[in-house]
Amino acid sequence: MVLSLVTATTLAFSLHAAPRSPIAAATQRFPAPHMGLFDGLAKAFENKDYSQSPGTYEQTNARASHILVATEEQASKIKDQIAAGDFDFSEAAVKFSTCASASRGGKLGKFVPGSMAKEFDDVVFKLNDTGELNPKNEAALYEPAYGLDEVHGPVQTKFGYHLIKIETRYIADFDFRLKEEGVVEI
After folding, report:
1. Same domain for 68 and 155
2. Which of 84, 85, 111, 170 could form a disulfide with 115 if both were Cys (CB 3.0 to 4.6 A apart)?
3. 18 and 74: one domain?
4. Considering only CA atoms, which of 99, 96, 118 is closest in space to residue 109?
5. Distance in angstroms (rounded) separating the CA atoms of residues 180 and 41
6. Domain identity same for 76 and 127
7. What does the DSSP 8-state code read for residue 105?
8. What is the Cα–Cα distance from 105 to 160, expressed in whole angstroms?
9. Is the peptide bond before 19 cis (omega within 30 degrees of 0)?
10. Gap between the Cα atoms of 44 and 59, Å rounded
11. Residue 30's domain spans which residues?
12. Do 67 and 36 belong to one domain?
């Protein structure tokens, strides 16, 4: 009796169901895969915002502006005028700088250590040892020698005398370009 009830129920449902093609029957037995040929690469091309975590993804870099003049006296005079409030740094760059960046207010854009003259890099990227150790890895802690948003100089290079204003600076925890001393074994 139970067998005849199951058979009757199956027949009743199969009579009212639409006829199935062999392809439709096959796809219902074996569900389609959720991963296509290129879905495995999709993560590599995701558009994630990493701007809030530069330490993981970025090496040491800075953004700075400068004013380039021929003599130290000119540079000192311009620095005094900026300090007195006669000129904004970018206005002074447009008016006095002999560099092509003068048209942009002296802005040099983003650069890494080694891309500018050595004396220029020393001002932007120089680090002083604080005498403290990082508790995580017991590495020496350093701090930048020159502050942000201050006018530094005159700095002499082979191009002339620079007044430098460091706008942003990121010093990575470890940067192979800044490592000058050998590894010390304990």
Report:
1. yes
2. 111
3. no
4. 99
5. 38
6. yes
7. T
8. 18
9. no
10. 21
11. 2-45
12. no
Q: pLDDT tens for the chain, 186 residues: list them.
A: 444 544 545 545 554 555 556 655 555 565 555 666 666 666 667 776 655 555 455 688 999 999 999 999 999 999 999 999 999 999 999 999 999 999 999 999 999 999 999 999 999 999 998 889 888 878 788 889 999 999 999 999 999 999 999 999 998 766 544 445 544 444
**Whole-structure pTM value:** 0.63
User: Coil, strand or helix: which one is 67?
Assistant: strand
Give the strand order in the sheet containing 61-69: 107-111, 61-69, 160-170, 151-157
Judge whether 50 lies within some domain: no
What does DSSP assign to residue 112?
-
Question: Under a CB-based contact definition with an 8 Å cutoff, are residues 141 and 51 in contact?
Answer: no
The tokens for 156 are: 């002499």
Task: List phi, psi (to 5°) of 148.
Answer: -80, 155
Q: Please give the Cα distance from 58 to 50 (Å, whole number).
A: 10
The span from the CA of 96 to the CA of 79, in Å, is 11
Q: How many domains does the chain have?
A: 2
The token duo for 110 is: 């983003």
In a domain, 126, yes or no: yes
Residues making up the chain, counted from first to last: 186
* Residues 152 and 106 sit within 8 Å (Cβ to Cβ): no
